[in-house]
Amino acid sequence: MTDVALLSDARTAAVAVLLPKLRERCGRRGDVFHYEVDEGGDVETALATIALVRPRVLAIVGDDATVSEVLTVMEARQPFGATPPPIAALGGGAADVVPHMLGSPGCSVEGLEQAARLARAGLGGRLINRVPVAVTAGGLRRLGLMVRTAGRRSISLRASADRGAKISGRFSRLVVVGNQAEGRAETPRLTMLAVEAGWRAALSAAAAAITGRLGMPWATGGHGTRCDDVAIDGADRLLLDGAAIAGPTMRLEPAAPVTFLKLAA
Fold first, then answer.
1. What is the largest CA-CA distance in the chain?
2. pLDDT at 265
3. What local confidence, expressed as pLDDT, does residue 94 receive?
4. What pLDDT score does 207 carry?
5. What is the CATH number of the domain that holds 65?
6. What does the alpha-carbon distance between residue 28 and residue 123 come to, in Å, rounded to a whole number?
7. Which SUPFAM superfamilies does the record associate with it (predicted)?
8. For 64-104, what is each residue's pLDDT tens digit?
9. In terms of Cα–Cα distance, which of 256, 192, 257, 259 is closest to 229?
10. Can you tell me the distance from the alpha carbon of 245 to that of 226, in angstroms, rounded to the nearest whole number?
11. Are 115 and 228 contained in the same domain?
């Protein structure tokens, strides 16, 4: 067993710049197993190899799409079996959102050092369980931590919300994220923020968001709610952790919670 396995996505230009520092850190001690995914490589092979060293922590240096790819492969192939290691998303892209969501903002090289220290000293109090969003489109199922609209076209949406409520209609803006779960046994759910199509609805929703009323019954135009599934028609594309996904119909649902390592205090 090794303390940390580092997956560096060298297909990302920003990560390629960081590689000399990452290699220097990994070569200085024997506590980090380093796997570089280059233009000819793939994440599935990387994770299968990493699983052989049985890491206490899986660290990822790459953009948001790299984290999405890792989550997708871990669900589909289960390279670590039933007990995967916690994931430390260290960033490395040009505009990363996922590391901020997971409490590891912008700290690729320094974050690797901290992850190694925590792996040696114990991970208690730094683990969080987050529900990924599973997106099925065009016969493919992919996982990520945030789905949002891209472009100006409105979409047709149907969602099953809290207390059996149904939401449907055309929407100009959509953001869906997975909830933070208290434990892996907790029922996974999604949180949806949606703005109805039309300028009046958008203006009303913006005012509701500013005053903290988004999602309340009297706040028209915007919906903020927990939900179990979202069906979308007519989307030319959405963004899953920054990567474009497309299909005539899409279904969003919660996946099983994944454990992440929070580096920020």
1. 60
2. 67
3. 59
4. 47
5. 3.40.50.10330
6. 23
7. NAD kinase/diacylglycerol kinase-like
8. 999 999 999 999 999 999 999 999 999 876 567 888 888 77
9. 192
10. 23
11. no
CATH number at residue 249: 2.60.200.40
pLDDT the model gives residue 107? 67
> What sign for the dihedral angle of Cα 65, 141, 251, 253?
negative
The per-residue pLDDT for range 100-132, each reduced to its tens digit, is: 888 776 668 889 999 999 999 999 889 999 999
Query: Where a domain ends, among 129, 157, 190?
Result: 129
| 206 lies in the same domain as 121 | no
109-132 burial: b if 16+ Cβ within 10 Å, else e: eebbebbbebbeeebeebebbbbb
pLDDT at 106: 61
Residues 146 and 113 in one domain: no
| pLDDT for position 105 | 64
Positions of the chain with pLDDT lower than 70, given as ranges: 93-95, 105-107, 183-185, 199-221, 236, 265
Within 10 A of 24 (CB to CB), how many other CB atoms are there? 10
Q: Report d(CA 140, CA 138) in Å as an integer.
A: 6
- Structural domain range at position 94: 2-129
SS3 assignment for the chain: CEEEEEEEECCCHHHHHHHHHHHHHHHHCCCEEEEEECCCCCHHHHHHHHHCCCEEEEEEEECHHHHHHHHHHHHHHCCCCCCCCCEEEEEECCCCCHHHHCCCCCCHHHHHHHHHHHHHHCCCCCEEEECCEEEEECCEEEEECEEEECCCCCEEEEEEEHHHCEEEEEEEEEEEEECEECCCCCCCCEEEEEEECCHHHHHHHHHHHHCCCCCCCCCCCEEEEEEEEEEEECCCCEEECCEEECCCEEEEEECCCEEEECCCC
The count of structural domains within the chain is 2
